[in-house]
Amino acid sequence: MAGASKIVSARLEALPLFKQSELVAAYKAVRGEISLEALTEGEHWEKFTFPRIKETALEFVARSEGQVFTRGSFGITEPVDGEVIALSEHDIVLVPIVAFDENCNRIGNGGGYYDRALAGAFTVKGSASSTNMSAAPPARSPITIGVAHEFQQVAEVPVEPWDVPLDGIVTDAGLFTTSLSPEVFAR
Question: Measured between alpha carbons, how far is 87 from 103 in angstroms, rounded to an integer?
Fold first, then answer.
């Protein structure tokens, strides 16, 4: 498990998208999830936020030096204090996964927290000029990247109307993207 976490963290750190990002929502791993500690405790530690549950919603708290974490809802380690930053201000959201399919649909832990948080978080960055049809289409932000072990891939994930598909998924075996987003990972 530790080997897979190191591989995934290295893959994420190598993404041009990650290198260009200023604010990344991460998570603290539980129950066998891929740990992101190699990434979040490394040289880029200041660019991360971590989620905590507030009533029925997720809020994302900026990482700070000496920050205190405690075991919160569902046994998940959460920041005790810090600046809350809107998810729409993030460049990337790293999402833990229970299972996923090749279309970047995911099953989470069943609370719907990430789907609710992501549903209202998207903004559009940049725009294509009407006189320049070759301009790249605007990029949706934040970019959502699922994080999983290769063995968590299944043939098909049932999709509900409220489910938010991911832009990509990084595993210890490689990178999966939707047909609409491969260029986003290389921008």
Answer: 23
Q: What does each C-alpha distance from 10 to 17, 18, 40, 115, 181 come to in angstroms?
A: 13, 11, 11, 26, 20
CB contact at 8 A, 78 and 60 = no
Select from 132, 155, 49, 144 the least CA-distant residue to 96: 144
Is the pLDDT at 181 greater than 60? The verdict is no
pLDDT of residue 55: 85
CA dist., res. 4 & res. 109, Å (int): 20
* Residue closest to 17 by CA, chosen among 125, 117, 110, 114: 125
* Model confidence pLDDT, tens digit, residues 58-105: 999 999 988 999 998 778 899 999 999 999 999 999 999 999 999 999
The residue written with tokens 């725009």 in the block is 127
Q: What is the pLDDT of residue 72?
A: 87
Phi, psi of 14 (to 5 degrees): -80, -15
